[in-house]
Design brief:
This protein has 4 helices and 14 strands. The chain has 316 residues and is an alpha+beta fold. The model has no long low-confidence stretch (mean pLDDT 79).
Length: 316
């Protein structure tokens, strides 16, 4: 029962966490599966603002970037491989974004260099996505699975003073995935409640009744020295199995008290006359003749006259 209750609580907690995560994803991304932040002011009067390698660490994420400058100054926004961007602005005075944390926390450093770009950015063909405009420019692209950098550049002799940036990012189908997490969390939480609610009844059915003896099969291996070793059922399959019945253990109970000695049975009374004694048969006399060789011969009374009669008394 205790183990079932623990599983029920674990499922309930997991369900609550999944529910909270699903609600958070739906609230952050919204129905369009996008999160927007900005506009944010970037204080600089340089010609270029670029991100260093590894600042953009995501892949397969939809990103929208809008750069705005005052008084309709020309501005360019582009996304390209970090190697190409770094080689393009390596001699240009710029502001580098060295770290970015969602929703909008950046770390920057100023790099000295020439005040102008080596050439017009619109003339380059290695940009993954780019846009240019007066007073503002924006791009919308899905981040590739490679190291890329974002560049915001001024066009002509102007600079980026008063630059404001708005960023939007999201995951395709993110709102639907958040809803799926929400439903999954509710289902797991409800399952945990059912496990905790029905656990004790199921355990009571599985428990043996009071006084019921549960038989357990134990396999014992006796080695050559007569020492017993308990083994598992799998190990016992390869050995000769001898069943040994346990001797019943007499139940301990109170000893019976000795009872009174039985009385002797009375002698039977005679109701009739005593039976008459049986007549004793008369003793029969046997006459024997012994010849010269010592052989006995039985003779009758009539033949006795021819012999000498000798009385022989029997030993007592």
């Amino acid at each position: 029962m205790l183990m079932r209750a623990r599983w029920g609580w674990a499922l309930s907690v997991l369900g609550v966490l999944l529910t909270i995560l699903g609600i958070a994803v739906m609230a952050v991304l919204g129905p369009d599966s996008r999160f927007s932040t900005g506009p944010h002011l970037i204080e600089t009067d340089d010609t270029a603002v670029v991100t260093t390698p590894r600042v953009i660490r995501w892949a397969d994420v939809q990103v929208d970037v809008l750069a705005e400058v005052p008084v309709r100054k020309p501005v360019f926004v582009g996304l390209a491989n970090s190697v190409d961007v770094r080689d393009y602005v390596r001699r240009t005075k710029r502001l580098e974004i060295t770290d970015f944390q969602r929703p909008w926390t950046i770390s920057t450093r100023a790099v000295k260099g020439n005040p102008n770009l080596p050439g017009a950015p619109t003339a380059l063909d290695w940009w993954i996505e780019s846009s240019a405009g007066l007073g503002g420019a924006s791009i919308s692209t899905q981040l590739p699975d490679q190291t890329v950098s974002l560049a915001i550049l001024s066009v002509g002799s102007s600079n980026l003073s008063g630059l404001q940036v708005t960023v939007a990012y999201g995951v395709k189908g993110g709102f639907a995935k958040g809803a799926a997490l929400l439903l999954l969390g509710l289902g797991v939480a409800w399952l945990g409640i059912l496990v905790r609610r029905n656990g004790p009844e199921d355990d009571d059915e599985d428990d043996p009744q009071d006084g019921e003896v549960v038989e357990e099969v134990v396999y014992v291996y006796v080695d050559d020295d007569g020492i017993e070793h308990e083994i598992s059922a799998e190990e016992a399959q390869g050995l000769e199995i001898v069943e040994e019945d346990e001797e019943p253990v007499p139940s301990a109970g109170p000893e019976p008290e000795p009872g009174p000695d039985p009385e002797p049975a009375p002698a039977p009374e005679r109701t009739g006359p005593a039976p008459a004694p049986r007549p004793v048969a008369a003793a029969q006399v046997l006459y024997v003749y012994v010849d010269e060789d010592g052989v006995e011969h039985e003779v009758s009374e009539d033949e006795l006259a021819e012999f000498e009669i000798v009385d022989e008394e029997e030993d007592a």
